[in-house]
Structure formats: structure tokens, C-alpha cells
Amino acid sequence: MSFYFQPTALVGAIAIAMGFSTSVSATTEAQTSAKSSLSTIVVTASRGEQNIENVPARISIIEPKILDQSSITSFPHILKNDASINMVQSGGFGQQASIFLRGTESDHTLVMRDGVRLNTATSSAASLPFIDTTDIEQIEVLKGPASVLYGTDAIGGVVHIISKTPQKSGAFVTGEIGENKTYKSSIGADFAENGVYAQIRGQRLESDGTPILNNQKRNYSYDQKGYSAKLGVEKDNYSASIDYSTNEGLNEFNKYGALEVTDFKNEIVNLKGSVKLVDQFELNARLSQFKDEADYLVSPSYIHSISQEAEVFGKWSFTNSQNILLGTTQRKLEAKTSALNEEIDSAGYYIQHQLNTDKLHTQVGLRVEDNEKFGTHTVAQGAVRYDFSPITSVYTNIGTAFKAPTLNDLYANWGGNPDLKPEESISYEIGIDQKLPFNILVGASTFYTEIDNLITSKCISNCPSWSSSDWKNINIDQASILGAELYAKWKLEDYFISTNYQYAKSKDEQTNDDLLRRPRHSLTVSAGIQNDVYGLSTSIIAKSKAKDFADDENDPLTNLPGYATVDFNAYWNVNPNIKLFTNIENMGDVKFKTAYNGSNTYYINGGRQASVGVTFKY
Known about the structure:
Elements: H1 7-18, H2 26-37, E1 41-42, E2 50-51, E3 59-62, H3 64-67, H4 75-79, E4 85-89, E5 97-101, E6 109-113, E7 116-117, E8 136-143, H5 147-150, E9 157-163, E10 170-178, E11 182-193, E12 196-210, E13 220-234, E14 238-255, E15 258-278, E16 281-296, E17 301-316, E18 322-337, E19 341-356, E20 360-371, E21 375-389, E22 392-403, H6 407-411, E23 423-436, E24 440-461, E25 470-492, E26 495-508, E27 521-530, E28 534-543, E29 546-549, E30 557-560, E31 563-575, E32 578-585, E33 593-596, E34 602-604, E35 609-617
Parallel strand pairs: 6-9
Antiparallel strand pairs: 1-2, 3-8, 4-5, 6-7, 8-9, 10-11, 10-35, 11-12, 12-13, 13-14, 14-15, 15-16, 16-17, 17-18, 18-19, 19-20, 20-21, 21-22, 22-23, 23-24, 24-25, 25-26, 26-27, 27-28, 28-31, 29-30, 31-32, 32-35, 33-34
């Protein structure tokens, strides 16, 4: 189900909108203000609702006000708002994107949507550029090891997409047009009454795209469409829901110097339920399936991945301040490509204890993971947050995590090594949060991570030549990451300023070289004015230089230069039913290198993307 706007139709719609009254419904906006005044609730850190101020770890939120700025904005670009994430994308719309969280590897971050794992069975990384942003409520970024609750892949942390659940009945339609002949339209309807809700969404995005290599001028286009549906019930003692979403499209990219086209499709089915058997005990269950398929239209190859999970966990609140979480996850991963046809079954069993008092918040957990190919692994984590006063809070945590080799790591034609060992890590962190006068909130944390048996690729023959070189996946003895994070926030009525800085030194302990594509310094700054009628904001994203591959065997690394970009956003709620908005990503049209492609060729970013749009809602 999709609704497509032509540019002329959108311009006409904006013209009509300008003729409407500028009065704003007091009831609607008061409801919005009340919601924004509530404490931020997160679910990723403990598998249940928790005030973010009580989490004994560093967790950040990409809020609805950021997500609602532009429907065209891609998921990788949204994640750049967090300084702890280095997003490496080989071009603009639809191009391959890798997430490096806190200096860890690109497959060390678990990406989920409502509890469903989006990391594929082949590469163990999520297909980030193909994730639609139409129906996202907020994004939670949990930093640090999270294998106790989520198993493999969560060495660096978790990026959890929380979708919207209808709160009232209504409907909307949005259209947006931008540079490079980029158009997106979306339409949706919600129903919510007496604890029963239903939702349907449809969307379509088209773009001529931009050049992706520094020595080419050809644009690489992107075309996507999809829909989603949700049905559920939410009562005091029980809840249940079923979600379905699918996205598909065509994406052009450069494959070893030649044009390739991907016919992609992803599909999520997620069935969840919970019941409160007694006042102190709640039982939760989830059954989900995620398909990620890519068929290449020029070369006769394909990559198909299926992840199936069944999970049951119970939460026993045996006192007013303590609870125990006990659960199990059964997982089956299947991968089919032109080079392999494999599957892996695993089972995880975990337990976690939580204590929450007025001043003390603790979290201690243990997980045993049984993988049919690699045997049994045990991970543990302990964390404490203590509020010295209403304005000063400190926390510390220590945890282990692991990542099983992917099916690509083991069996791919290019570098496959069936003798690989799982990666294992241990992380330490300590932090402080401080409230200052004049509505200022500041915080600082420092962290250290050691990763054993880190999986990396090594050239074993014909190394000076990219076209004929042979590579093999190997385990290196150890990598280490030493880092620190600082943030400061200020808000007064409608005005706000927020800044976040991260330093991360990621090293191969064998060679003492920096790990690739990980800048040591990252900074984000945002400022503006936002209220129920209008808003203006700007944000700065800055990265220092980073290392990458090079051609010369005597100097195997090259520098990717640092960069800084500026985004701008503005909106105007003309009346309760009409919203006008505009966005400019990368206002200065800064062109920078994102990754090395051999033979003095680099991938580059997509440049400026300016757009304007309108939303009609009822």
C-alpha cells in the first residue's frame, strides 16, 4: 500500500495549506506538552520499562522530534546524531553502511526492531540503508556489552528501534521532495479504543542518487516501497500484538568497478504477548522471523538470510524494590548464497537480578549460550548506579560479551575460514551525571574494552595487487579500545543546546595500528528553538581522520580525512491538521572520503540533500 506524490502535486498541496488558519488546537498541543514533560522511558537495558536516569549504563535516545524532521532522511544519517557511532557509508541513498559503536567492529553492534534481530545470518550486520524510517517512535542506543540479555553480536552495544503504537484514532499523509529528484510519500491510519489498537502504513521513496566514487560522475539510483500493519490489545493484566512489515526495491551500486543492481526485500513478522499471572509475576513470549534477501541482477548471485527466534522470559518482582528476570531464547539462522547453504541453531539461557531503591540501582546477570558449531559460552555482567543526591549520580559496570563467527566468516569463497574461534570481550566503564544550575545537565564516562580472537581479513598472497590478491579471515590475539564520552545539555522553555563528544582509541595489540575506519574524535552539537507551533534547529556532526586500507604493501594503511557537516531543520504547524517542514542535510555540500576502494579510488558521501514537505493529519 503506497501513496505517491508527484512534485507538482506537492507544491499544490503546500499552496493550499498556506491558505488555512494558523490557529492551533489547545487540547492537542497540551497533550503533546504533557507527554514531553514525562521522564524518558527505555526498555533495552533491562527488557522492561525503566526510567533512563536509573539505568546503570550509558544509554542515549534519538527522540521523535529528530525522527519526525524528515521522512526522506535515511536510517544511517539519523544514527550520525550520536557521537559514539561512526557511520561509514559508501555513498548516499541505498549504499552500503557500517556502524562502528564505541570503536568496535561493524558487526559488533546488535540492531533490533521491537526485539527482532535485524543482523543477518550471512554477515551478522544489519542492512542499515534499507531500513525504513516511517514508523519509528524512538531509537535507543545502549552502549557497552549486552550479551547477557541478547547473546551474540552485542559487544559494542545495541541499537534498538522502537516502532509507534497507536494512542488515538487518526490518519495522515505526508509528501516530501528533495534534490537529486528525490521523492518520498507515506500514508497511514491508526485506530485505538478501549485498549485495542490497529495500524497500517504505506510508503514509497525514489531518488536519482548521487555519485559514490571520487573519480566518477555517474549517479546511483535508489527505489524503495513497503507497507506495515499492526494489531494488538493492551490491558492491565495482559497484552498481545502481531506486527508485519516489508520493504523492497532496487538499488544501484559499484561492484569492483562495474555497475550492479540489487533487487532487495526484507520482511518482519513479530508476534508478542505478556500476561500477569499474579501481581508479582509477569510472563512474556515472542515468536519472530526476519527475512533479508538480495538478488543481483547483473551478476548471477544472491544473498538470502532468514532468522527465526522464539523467546520466553518471566519477571518476578518478589519485593517492592527487587526483581528477577529468567528467560530462554531459541534461534535458527539460515543463509543461502551462490557460495554457501548453511544454518546454525543456538539456544540461550539467562538470569538477571535488579535492585531499585531511591538511591541505589543495580543489575547483575548471567547467560549461557549453546551454539551447535562452537559449543557453550558463558557471559556475565554487573552494574551499579548510586544517586549521591538529587543532582549527582555515578555508575559503574563490568561485563563480558561474545560474537560467533558468521557464516560468511566461515565459508565464503573470499576469505572463508572454518577454523575461526568466536570473539570474546570484557569491558569496564565508570561514569557520572550531574545537574547544574540554569537547567544544565552534564555527564562524563570512561570505558575500556579488550577483545580476544578478533576476526579480521589478512592478505596471504599477491598482496600488492587488489585484483589478484588472496585473503583469509583470521583471529588476531587481541584488540583494545580505550575511550571517554562527555555530554552537556541545556534547555530553557523552547530553547535548547545539546553536545556530545567521544574519544576512542581502537588498537590492534599485535601491530599497534589503529583499527580501520574508526576516528579517535567525534563531536555532535545541536541547538534551536522548538514549540508546538514552529521550530528551527541546526546540528553539527564532526569526525577526525581515520585509517583505512591502502595498495602499498610497505605502507598498508592510508588516511581518511576528517570532516564536519551542518544540518538544518524547520517546521510550522499551520493548524492541527497541517504541518509544513524543510530540511537541509549537509548545508555546505561538504564532500569527503568515506572508505578506500583501491587504485587511488575512494567512496565519497552523498553531499547536500535539501527537501521540503507537508503532512496532512486527521
